[in-house]
Amino acid sequence: MSSRTSSRVRAAKVPAGATVIKMPRQRRSGRRAQPFVVVVPAERHSLSRRLAEWAGLALWEHRRAIAPTALALAAFPLTAILHALAWWSGLLLAPVAAGPLVWLLVTQRRRPAATRSVLGWRVGLALLSTTAVAWMALAAGFGPLAGPLPLLWLLTATAAQTTWLIVRRTR
Hints:
Elements: E1 18-22, E2 37-41, H1 47-61, H2 67-85, H3 89-93, H4 99-110, H5 116-142, H6 149-170
Antiparallel strand pairs: 1-2
């Protein structure tokens, strides 16, 4: 047998429980080229891991659609941390709650609404934003679980998510 016809396959180290697929040598790859070795893990993923991967992919694909819910979920622990570290931060956030109402007045003065529906959307947006910022100020000052604040958070988050989905569908 000549060196051209004899096959020299070197044993590759393969981890336990893995499947090995050996690719044949290409014709023009040269004499000293090593064969390709692909190692495929043989482990089977559990059902809970598959469900977690599916949920993660679904959330990632629809991340724009659930943006208000993500912001509301981020605001809850943020205000808890603000309350624990500096309760007086609620006093700093309180004047910011008037910002959306000021925006509404300035917008109406510069560009008056042509129809009642435009005015309705502007007023609704301003009220929703004012409610959200006022909730943040109250939650930072008194804690997010104080009194009716969790219910107000839930209603505001639901209204924001619903409005967001309606606005995105009508574009």
